[in-house]
Amino acid sequence: TSSNKPVSKTFCGFEDSKRCGYVAESGSHWTWQSSMYSSTTGPKQDHTYGTPNGHYMMLNSQGAASSSKTTHTSRIDSPQFKTSSAGYCIKFWYNLHGQDIKFLKVYAKVNGGLGYPVFTKTGNVDSDWHQAQISLDNEYTSHPFQIVFESATNAYYTNHYSSGGYHHIYSLDKSNTAIDDVTVFNTSCSHLSQSSHGSHVRQNGSDTSYYSFHAKPLSWNEAKTACRREDSQSSLVSINSQGEQDYLVRTIKNDEDLANIASLGFYTGGNDEKTEHNFVWTDNGAPVTFTNWHPGQPNNVGGDQDCLLLQYPDTNFEWGDVGCSEKHPYICEYHN
Question: Which residues form a coiled coil (predicted)?
Fold first, then answer.
């Protein structure tokens, strides 16, 4: 008889300096990066938080550059993953933004050997984050293995003398490659269940959203990470219509456990950390156009209230802005 083993999942949003055990190979120039690096290459912000204080891994083309015109290849290795007869599913987000972008390749490293890449993307895409999915069969996963991300740059510099000193002038340096939010499952991608997307489903025309409500209070950053950990395409909820607001309110009021914590409010994905008083939905950076603010809100008390909370249960959870370090329940949304 066959047994259905529970699926294990590891997630890395690169939000602390330990980087979940991912290590750049010797001589590589993958760096732990935050905020917008350049308007002409690299992402505007990280994918986990969608704010200036989030982190990701990036091949820094200027850091890799030298005075010689040559290709500099850099790799970063994951921790080792255990064997699995059911295969593995790897999901991650990448950013290929810059006119000099060469490629991003992913390998499954077995017994120290890279083999052929299991994923390849070449050239400039755009400034957005994009998700990739890789299914590894048991030819790879019958052995312990590592995931290896590889990119390269042709960046170089020349030395110019001005203002009493020499300065680098860079060429072919619009080639920063970034990765974030790597999720690894010990089963094939085809076996992953959609049930993890949340137990509450809302259909709006051809669009389907899955919501999960979480009673344990977390800071906004912690809640954002928890949603990403729940599913690689899940994020703190974005509320884009009165109908969606009403649906969330009904769900909370009709659930005794949620109703009992209503006074604590619920975090959403709204945030104005990047530009004060310009709230955006951090799942995609879109401006908040539908609004449901409580009278007098947002008010930015103390100058540090950047996060949007479903705050006022007595008025159907009208919105307020709060400090992001406050701990509140939260709502995750997977939008299909």
Answer: none
Q: Using omega within 30 degrees of 0 as the cis cutoff, is the peptide bond preceding 217 cis?
A: no
Q: How far apart are CA 27 and CA 60, in angstroms?
A: 12
138 vs 232 pLDDT, higher one: 138
Domain ranges of the chain: 9-191, 194-335
2 has pLDDT over 80:
no
Greatest CA separation for the chain: 78
Q: Return the CATH architecture of domain 9-191.
A: Sandwich (2.60)
Cα gap 125→281, rounded to integer Å? 22
Distance CA 115, CA 2 (A): 32
Nearest-5° Cα angle at 188, 186 to 193: 90
Contact (CB, 8 A) for 136 and 116:
no
Which position has the higher pLDDT, 260 or 167? 260
- Taking only the tens place, the pLDDT of each residue in 230-259 is 988 899 999 999 999 999 999 999 999 999
This model's pTM is above 0.70: yes
Mean pLDDT of the 92-115 span = 97
Task: Write out the DSSP string of 92-141.
Answer: EEEEE-STT--EEEEEEEETTB--S-SEEEES---SS-EEEEEEE-HHHH
Whole-angstrom CA distances from 130 to 176, 181, 225, 307, 308 are: 15, 11, 18, 25, 25
- Residue whose C-alpha is closest to residue 177's, from 235, 113, 119: 119
The CATH code that applies to domain 194-335 is 3.10.100.10
Q: Which strand ranges, in their side-by-side order, compose the sheet holding 119-122?
A: 23-24, 72-77, 145-153, 103-110, 119-122
Q: How far apart are CA 11 and CA 80, in angstroms?
A: 14
What is the mean pLDDT of the segment spanning 180-201? 83
Burial class (CB in 10 A: 0-12, 13-18, 19+), 295: exposed
